[in-house]
Each structure stands twice: as structure tokens, then as C-alpha cells.
Amino acid sequence: MTLSQAKALAREVLEDDFVLPYFSTEQLAMMKTLEKSICPRDPPPQSNAEANTETNTESNVMLLDGVSGCGITTFFRTLHQRHPSSSQLLQGDMYIGGSEFLDHLSDAFHVRRKYHPKKRVLAPNLVRTLSLSSQKMILVDDLDVLASDIDDYDTVFGVIRLLSEEIRDLKFVISTSSALLQKRFDRYLRLGWRRYTFRQRLTDEEYQEFANRLWGRLNCEYSLSLTAESIRVPEPKFGLDIQDVNRSLRLKLVERFLHQQGAVAALSTTNDLNEYESYVLQFLYT
């Protein structure tokens, strides 16, 4: 492999949207529990790590929250990809009230739009379609509502409440970055709705497990042919924040690959992540 080919491959490793299904053990536990609730008779194959995780999330409506970059969007995408026939993913929309949310839901299930918000009556054809559909888990990622009044924030939750009460085996899993929506959601906890917060930081054990999975998959996916010594996981010198861990591990793998190819003379010793990124990138774009 020439140096220009090695640099092109290294850029691909950093710039591609390759992601792992989950970052932490709590996300794995949540995924396992949700999979069990939508596929109780036919669970997917489990690794040893998956077999040792479990969490109680039995509820028809759940809110997942956490700071940006904690892995919720990746979690939703992975869950939907693993169970496309059992789940429906609604992603990245802003709704002006419950009727627009119903429109999006109707379009996703190919149902003609019809809703009477003042009468609080759901279209029978939508209820019938959702009742008969095998997609009993609706994933709503990054929910947002454009509201002129504080009570408008309840309109989408009102629709979700109607549907979850009308169709007993229908489940909603929601994420939102809106603090107001998160606060309004808490009003529904008395109905049995649940809220779960993903951690932003990994434990030392989770760091090691995540690093081994990430490096092993990247080494195989991009045919880097790194030696066993090169893919030995380093200590978390840049902290345990999920975003920093993901970023630094990819940079470290690329640096070691370039070092093995002779494009980098010496490995960096800096303790600043931004400086480290600049150090690695200078070899890719010069």
C-alpha cells in the first residue's frame, strides 16, 4: 500500500458514518429489554455481554433523554434496523400541534389523514391500521413542537396518550432535546409513562469494552491489517465522555495505522484532544 493510499483509507475511517450499535452497557440493557417487548418469542442472537444485561422498562410510553452525542439517535437507528417489521421510526421533525404529529404518523403507515382535535376523536382507519400492523413500537427521535402557548406542548402527548390507551400493545419510545417537552412529559409519569436518562460518561470497564469493539470492527471493516500490538487499547487519557472517547479512539487508530505504514514517524504524547486531532490530521491533508 502506498502512502497516498494509506492516507486515503485513513481519511475514510475518520469521515465515514460507521457507528457501533450501542456505546454503553445501559444502552445495551435498554435495547435488549425493548427487543424482548416487541419480539418476545423470537429474540435476536445475543453475545455474552448481551446475556448479562437487563433493565425494567415495561411501559407503553417512554422518554429517553441525554445530552447531545450520548447515543440516542444511534440507539433508535440500530433498534429499527434490527427490527424493521416490528418498529416504525419517525425522525427529526418539528410539529405544530398534535394534528401535524398525526399527519406524520398517518403518512408513515400509509393512512389517509383525518383527525378532529377538538372532539379528541382519532380516525378509525388509523386506529384499525395500527391495531393490525406488526409495527407495534413507534420510535420518535428528536421530537420538537412549535408552540405559541405552553399548553400546546401537551398536544402531541395527548395524541400519544389517546393512541396508547386505544391500542394496548402499542408502544412509543420518544427522545427530545427540548427542556420544555421533557418537563411536560413528567406530568404523565402518573399514568405509568417512564423516563430514562442515558449517561454521557462511560465507566472504565465500558471504555475498554467499547474500544475493543470499535477497533476490532474498524480494523476488519476497512482491512487495516493492524498488528495485535497496534490495536492494544490505550488508557483513556482524554477522559470518559462518550463523544471524546469515540473521537479520540478513531484518531488513535488512524495514527497507529499511519505509523505502521510509515506515514507518521512518532506517536503523539499530547494530553489535549484538540491538539492531538490537529497532530493526526496534518498527516492526512499534507
Provide keyphrases for this structure.
single chain, alpha/beta, 2 domains, 5-stranded parallel beta sheet, two-stranded parallel ribbon, 11 helices, 11% strand, elongated
Explain what the structure shows.
The protein is α/β, with parallel strands linked by helices. The chain has helices at 3-15, 25-38, 48-51, 72-82, 98-108, 124-132, 154-166, 179-185, 204-221, 242-260, 273-284; strands at residues 61-65, 87-91, 94-95, 115-116, 121-122, 137-141, 144-145, 171-175, 194-197. The protein has two domains: 3-19 and 202-284; 25-197, Rossmann fold, CATH 3.40.50. It is 46% helix and 11% strand. The chain has a five-stranded parallel β-sheet with strand order 2-6-8-1-9, sandwiched between helices. A two-stranded parallel sheet has the order 3-7. A two-stranded antiparallel sheet has the order 4-5. β4 (115-116) and β5 form a beta hairpin. The longest helix has 19 residues, at 242-260. The protein starts with a helix and ends with a helix.
| Head-to-tail CA distance between termini | 18 Å
Number of H- or I-type helical stretches: 11
Domain count: the total is: 2
Poorly predicted runs of 5 or more residues: 50-57
| Coarse shape | elongated
Which structural class do the helices and strands define? Answer: alpha/beta
Helix content: 40-55%
- CATH topology call of the largest domain: Rossmann fold
Query: β content, as a range?
Result: 5-15%
Order of helices and strands: HHHEHEEHEEHEEHEHEHHH
Layout: helices, strands, pairs:
Blueprint: H1 3-15, H2 25-38, H3 48-51, E1 61-65, H4 72-82, E2 87-91, E3 94-95, H5 98-108, E4 115-116, E5 121-122, H6 124-132, E6 137-141, E7 144-145, H7 154-166, E8 171-175, H8 179-185, E9 194-197, H9 204-221, H10 242-260, H11 273-284
Parallel strand pairs: 1-8, 1-9, 2-6, 3-7, 6-8
Antiparallel strand pairs: 4-5
Helix pairs in contact: 1-10, 5-7, 9-10, 10-11
